[in-house]
């Protein structure tokens, strides 16, 4: 549902005997600012209904229900509009269609960029865009620009837009497969998706809205359709094709693939039924010699919002402002083992060594935060034979990068990032006594499992997508202690109280994600 905004709308003007709508560029800036502010803090009502349905499903696993409850609680905090729902506040993407009889009074791209700049500067969001200075050197742009802006020219006098804030972990789960006609057999197609969907893993914070596109006049058309389908922007497509080559949704195949995902056992991050909320399958026309197949997801930070400018005014999709109504009256949490992090690393590892894989834990004490850029530096130090900083051996490592801290709080939204990017460094770090306990999200390489077994290490999984509740209720203190030049990727020392996690990899070769699910 779209609601009308109190922003100056377009006026009708006559030009060369024709009528046009003319909207001021400043209105487009104001619309962009509000759209990205809303989408950073609020979710769609339908998405929250799907999370609530997990709580009410007796077939959902206990871990499915735990993740769903954490995500609803996170939505409640984010809706207060201080903490963004996720620490990765995303790349700003604006896509849509502009009628040729709608005129923007001023530079349209600059107007949209100004709205993005203002939203990221004025709210506790995170700047994620890296400018390449040379092929090998990069620097954060400090504005979250550039943005991806793709607006198509069409007939008419309306401007229809979708604003998306796409996180890196979610974007990384977009895939293109160049297949052939041979794939278009029912059994073969299902087997193909059974294999490919498993490779999505849990690093993009399920439950997912999964989008699959079969066909396309080009690879880029296929993948653009994936993005729009994952945003549920193509839901009104017809249910069958015709000789014109019109796109259609295959709702039968959607149901079959959803069923497939429910039986995979990966569940909402830690095992169960709810790997996906829903599935969209779209069939496009294709060149007879190619069959592009695309797959992508919208993650638990399900951030997209529709807008429209037309003769009646300026409109924006109404997102859910009261997510608390989806909380159950009685909230139960799995029995968790408390781990004191303010003890020597050998004692922390001894405590974790008593626990079975998948045991829930509550961590309290000191952690070190370090991610991609710091690990690259540590890799260089090790290659140069230099000693590692003491904090790497003394404390557990949390792979994360915070959003800005809202005034009056100790931390901003501060959820886990994808652990797998740090995998190549783990064996050598652990060989030097560092990174014995790692905390992040998603599955890890077999080399990490082997390293933990060889060096007595552990990997603990945190709920991806619940960054606002970690930032407001769990992280008590944040102090930058090294590599300040890396901004949000610097090394931080943080104090946590009852940080929830699960044992994913233990010191005996156990790996939660490698178990038969
Ligand atoms: S919910 Fe997960 S995948 Fe989505 S933006 Fe946040 S960290 Fe990335």
Automatic annotation (TrEMBL):
- What positions does the domain Fe-S hydro-lyase tartrate dehydratase alpha-type catalytic occupy? 31-307
* Known EC number: 4.2.1.2
Please give the family membership noted in the entry: Belongs to the class-I fumarase family.
Q: What is the lineage of its organism?
A: Bacteria, Pseudomonadati, Pseudomonadota, Alphaproteobacteria, Rhodobacterales
Which cofactor is recorded for it?
A: [4Fe-4S] cluster
What pathway is this protein said to act in by its record?
Carbohydrate metabolism; tricarboxylic acid cycle; (S)-malate from fumarate: step 1/1
Q: Which reaction does it catalyse?
A: (S)-malate = fumarate + H2O
Record's keyword annotation contains Iron-sulfur: yes
Supply the Pfam families for this chain. Fumerase (PF05681), Fumerase_C (PF05683)
> What exactly does this protein do?
Catalyzes the reversible hydration of fumarate to (S)-malate.
Please state what class of enzyme this protein is. Answer: lyase
Record-given protein name: Fumarate hydratase class I
Q: Name one GO biological process term.
A: tricarboxylic acid cycle
Give the record's keywords alphabetically. 4Fe-4S, Iron, Iron-sulfur, Lyase, Metal-binding, Tricarboxylic acid cycle
